[in-house]
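Input/output pair, single chain:
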Amino acid sequence: QVQLVESGGRLVQAGGSLRLSCAASGRIFGYYTMAWFRQAPGKEREVVATIDWSGGSTYYVDSVKGRFTISRDNAKNTVYLQMNSLKPEDTAVYYCRTGTYWGQGTQVTVSS
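Output:
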């Protein structure tokens, strides 16, 4: 069993920055690919970024390339999503995922 707890979401103005965190517990964290997803109202959940177990391979959806950075600290069992130059269209609930396990989500709201 794996538990994922996201934090860091809040209301921010367009152009601002946020760092989301996802703390994992209950299993060996370091061997698994981690991912951030988001779901905006009325839209399907989409993958935002992924990172492999070593941190050496990452993926970003086109809409966030150059603005978001995913990273992980295996010693702390935590994955991060640094979000810069935020836009109103980034407003969504952001979820952490590994394998079949999901966190509860954290709300990010970007005001124009």
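Residues 34 and 98 are 5 Å apart (CA to CA). The radius of gyration is 13 Å.
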